[in-house]
């Protein structure tokens, strides 16, 4: 049995008519950049995430980079960030002239550990970027408490957690991306809300931040004053926005299907003797399962075995950022970040996409059992 890590073709087939129709409409309109679909998508996602402003940009990486610039983070500043994430999160810090300060993760959630932040602060620290990894929320109440105490900006990296609800706040649950100063979304095809190409979005309740992002995405252009800032070419195109508007209507259903698949995995693993640690479900949030990531011994040998059985898996991430060659000059390899280093040797992401069938999940778990038996 062949089981891919992600089956985007199957997802497309469920929405084929809707997608083809809106693509045709865009092509016939002749309006391809920052058109009515981009504006409508921004409004719909702002409403979905309960924020005042949403600004479409060219990628999740650009969402992070432009957010840093809009908040005044730059040369000589330091930004707290996890070492256990995709490099884009730290890369953009360096690109704006600041320095990433890597702080270790929690063992259970794989997310930035709020308890480790204060001891890493210096007089240069300007911001914190909590990454909601795999669809699991960072404990934002603790992050925001520390940020307020030390007058720091908070940029939520929500690339893997669109739709995740945080329940640790007073009142109603809040969507991730609506809690910090800004939230950054990625519409890369593998995400829970993914386009058919690159795309991203910045969420905020701050009018001035939204205004600056809108200028930065079009070469610093202010419609009233000419080119006000040195900006970038970072526009979400009309075709992607039209497709994402279709997929936005399906995303909650797909998230429920991911939950069902995760529950089946959990049930099957709990009834076995396989030495696996299933994904942690924090009491303060509702996971959205962008990835179903287990911890398991003999990880690399197991992955090779599963590949031979036709089961595709992925390691997110095999080498923490502080050990990457690109950060050698910062002396990061000397940092003591044992939780991140340990996780990188044990994590394995299994197929979790909505269209995954029960028989396929059972096959995956049975093959893992066979490996250990």
Radius of gyration: 21 Å
Number of helices: 12
Strand order within the widest sheet?
A: 1-9-8-5-4-2-3
Report the span from N to C terminus.
20 Å
At CATH level 2, the architecture of the largest domain is 3-Layer(aba) Sandwich
Q: Determine the mean pLDDT.
A: 96
Question: Mind describing the biggest β-sheet?
Answer: 7 strands, mixed
General description of the model:
This protein has 373 residues and is α/β, with parallel strands linked by helices. The chain folds into two domains: 8-102 and 110-248, Type I PLP-dependent aspartate aminotransferase-like (Major domain) (Aspartate Aminotransferase, domain 2), CATH 3.40.640; 251-372, Aspartate Aminotransferase, domain 1 (Alpha-Beta Complex), CATH 3.90.1150. 37% of the residues lie in helices and 14% in strands. The chain is built from twelve helices and 14 strands. It has helices at residues 8-14, 16-29, 36-49, 60-70, 88-95, 140-149, 207-216, 238-248, 251-270, 299-308, 338-346, 358-372; strands at residues 53-57, 78-81, 99-102, 125-129, 153-157, 165-166, 174-175, 182-186, 200-204, 221-222, 226-227, 285-286, 292-295, 347-350. A seven-stranded mixed beta sheet has the order 1-9-8-5-4-2-3, with helices on both faces. Strands 7-6-12 form a three-stranded antiparallel beta sheet, with no helix packed on it. Strands 10-11 form a two-stranded antiparallel sheet. Strand 10 and strand 11 form a beta hairpin. Helix 2 runs antiparallel to helix 8 (238-248), helix 3 runs parallel beside helix 8 (238-248) and helix 4 crosses helix 7. The longest helix has 20 residues, at 251-270. It starts with 7 loop residues before the first helix and ends with a helix. The model has no long low-confidence stretch (mean pLDDT 96).
């Amino acid at each position: 049995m062949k089981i891919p890590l992600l089956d985007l073709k199957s997802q497309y087939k469920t929405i084929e008519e809707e997608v083809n129709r809106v693509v045709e409409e865009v092509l016939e309109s002749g309006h391809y950049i920052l058109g009515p679909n981009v504006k409508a998508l921004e409004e719909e996602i702002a409403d979905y995430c309960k924020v005042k402003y949403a600004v479409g940009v060219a990628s999740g990486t650009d969402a992070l980079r432009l957010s840093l610039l809009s908040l005044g983070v730059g040369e000589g500043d330091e930004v707290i960030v996890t070492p256990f994430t995709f490099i884009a999160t730290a890369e953009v810090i360096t690109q704006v002239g600041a320095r990433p300060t890597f702080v270790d993760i929690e063992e259970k959630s794989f997310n930035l550990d709020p308890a480790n932040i204060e001891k890493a602060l210096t007089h240069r620290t300007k911001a914190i970027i909590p990454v909601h990894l795999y669809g699991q929320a960072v404990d934002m109440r603790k992050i925001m408490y520390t940020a307020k105490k030390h007058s720091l900006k908070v940029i939520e990296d929500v690339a893997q957690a669109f739709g995740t609800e945080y329940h640790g706040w007073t009142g109603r649950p809040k969507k991730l991306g609506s809690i910090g100063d800004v939230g950054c979304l990625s519409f890369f095809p593998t995400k829970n809300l993914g386009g058919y190409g690159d795309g991203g979005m910045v969420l905020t309740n701050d009018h001035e931040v939204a205004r600056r992002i809108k200028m930065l995405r079009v070469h610093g252009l202010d419609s009233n004053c000419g080119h006000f800032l040195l900006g970038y070419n970072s526009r979400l195109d009309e075709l992607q926005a039209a497709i994402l508007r279709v997929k936005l209507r399906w995303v909650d259903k797909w998230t429920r299907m991911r939950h069902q698949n995760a529950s089946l995995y959990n049930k099957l693993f709990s009834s076995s003797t396989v030495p696996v640690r299933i994904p942690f479900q924090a009491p303060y949030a509702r996971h959205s399962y962008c990835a179903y990531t287990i911890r398991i011994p003999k990880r690399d040998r197991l992955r090779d075995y599963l590949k031979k059985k036709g089961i595709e898996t992925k390691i997110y991430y095999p080498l923490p950022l502080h050990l990457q060659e690109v950060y050698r000059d910062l002396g990061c390899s000397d940092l003591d970040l044992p939780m991140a280093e340990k996780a990188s040797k044990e994590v394995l992401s299994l197929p979790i996409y909505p269209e995954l069938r029960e028989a396929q999940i059972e096959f995956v778990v049975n093959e893992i059992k066979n490996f250990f038996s």
